[in-house]
Write a structure and sequence with these properties.
Residues 1-20 form the signal peptide. The protein is α+β, with helices and mostly antiparallel strands. It has helices spanning 39-45, 79-89, 108-118; strands spanning 51-55, 59-66, 69-76, 95-99, 102-106, 121-124. The protein has one domain (28-128). It contains three helices and six strands; from the N terminus they run H-E-E-E-H-E-E-H-E. The radius of gyration is 14 Å and the shape is globular. The protein starts with 38 loop residues before the first helix and ends in an 18-residue tail after the last strand.
């Protein structure tokens, strides 16, 4: 992964969501290779000044965003911890951008736009909590 800008000095915390999975090494459909690294590194790549909410050994989570485009960014100590967190979180609906040991959660448009910077795989939460989501159209984001 190339580093294109210096790490930002973070005064807040970053909300990070992590989900097990890896992106492809190529640029399919304009999606860059999946980013990796610490919460601070991911936030810097996304040009976010994170507002830290949780800073524990197993998960670090912060809020990011500009204006109405807010999202949660989370990083996890293990792939298993990420998968368990994601399996529970998806019961509440929402849209999830998943990388290896990190997750971003937010509105569909916000998370889709973030994918052009961080790569990753799109996942969607439970259909009964996502009125009008792709589950209701019989489709699914890939």
């Amino acid at each position: 992964m190339r580093v294109t800008r210096p790490m930002l000095a973070l005064t807040g915390a970053v909300a990070a969501l992590a989900l097990a999975g890896c992106g492809s090494g190529g640029h399919e459909d304009g999606v860059p290779p999946t980013a990796a690294g610490s919460l601070e590194h991911l936030a810097a790549e996304a040009r976010c000044e994170p507002n830290m909410q949780t800073d524990a050994d197993t998960i670090r989570q912060a809020l990011c965003g500009k204006g109405d485009e807010k999202y949660v960014l989370a990083t996890f100590a293990t792939d298993r911890g990420q998968r368990e967190w994601l399996d529970t979180a998806k019961d509440y609906g929402g849209y999830y951008l998943v990388g290896r040991k990190w997750v971003a959660v937010g509105e569909e448009d916000t998370v889709t736009a973030l994918r052009s910077t961080l790569g990753g795989t799109m996942e969607e939460g439970s259909e009964h909590m996502n009125p009008g989501g792709s589950h209701n159209r019989g489709g699914h984001h890939g």
